[in-house]
Amino acid sequence: MSLKNLPKLPQKSGILLLDKPADFSSHDIIAIVRRILNTKTIGHSGTLDPMATGLLILLIGREATRRQPDFLKLSKTYQAVLTLGTETNTWDRYGEVIHSAPVPSISSEQLTAAVQKLSGTIAQQIPPFSAKKIKGEKMYDLARKGVELAPRFSEITVSWENVSLHSPNEISFTLTGSCGTYVRSLGYMLARELGTVGHLSSLRRIAIGSYHVNEAFDGNLLKSCQTDTLYNWVQAL
Predict the structure, then answer these.
(1) Would you name the residues annotated as active-site residues?
(2) What is the CA radius of gyration of the chain?
(3) Which domains does the chain have, with CATH numbers?
(4) Which of 157, 195, 200, 237 gives 20 to 30 Å between its CA and that of 84?
(5) Alpha-carbon distance 149 to 130, whole Å?
(6) Cα 131 to chain center, whole Å?
(7) Euclidean distance between CA atoms 221 and 68, whole angstroms
(8) pLDDT tens, N- to C-terminus, the chain (237 residues)
(9) Are 42 and 230 in contact, with CB atoms under 8 Å apart?
(10) Distance CA 75, CA 13 (A)
């Protein structure tokens, strides 16, 4: 049954906190929720790459989607792992390896100094494989066509916590970034600051503003979820 033929049900407008599983795009999840809730009117507060897991905030109904700009502005907090020594074309583990480099011995002082350079308000390099548009075309479409693009940057504000070198070539960290932060960009830049290359091998979004993933519906349960059950998870604004 297509969306246009779905029966009209009483609509409950509000927000749905959802814990996205890996290997689904955010748009895949939104399409599934649209079918379950029998509604087309769903927005979001910022998407996640297929590799990433964690918090999505879906805005259900007209009243909630009108507030999408406010939700998009909220800061976001992530837990991530950076693997050093190999760089991929997407700057995460889903990409193809394009560079390899030796990983130097890294002291805690060197790691702290590198992180400090990437803290506060900084110029973030935008990943070539991103949805950022150039003259109407998304950068990942241009990258797939083999178009070489000059590096592009955007200004963001970031803070780091729990930065730890827990193996010779892996760094784990928690990062909070302003709207538009690409965590894989910060991983790419941190590896370069440390004198090597790297890619993000794990990414989980744990918070958006004051909303936490611990309060979210498990996205793995969507396939067997009924309409009333999921509507019970929609919070009024």
Answers:
(1) 49
(2) 19
(3) 11-73+210-235 (3.30.2350.10), 76-208 (3.30.2350.10)
(4) 157
(5) 12
(6) 12
(7) 25
(8) 455 554 454 467 899 999 999 999 999 999 999 999 988 899 999 989 899 999 999 999 999 999 999 999 999 999 999 999 999 999 999 999 999 999 999 999 999 999 999 999 999 998 887 767 666 777 666 667 676 777 789 999 999 999 999 899 999 999 999 999 999 999 999 999 999 999 999 999 999 999 999 999 999 999 899 999 999 999 998
(9) no
(10) 23
- Residue 229's SS3 state is helix
The structure's pTM equals 0.90
Helix (H) or strand (E) holding 208: strand 198-208
DSSP string spanning 106-165? --HHHHHHHHHHTSEEEEEEPPSSSS-EETTEEHHHHHHTT------EEEEEEEEEEEEE
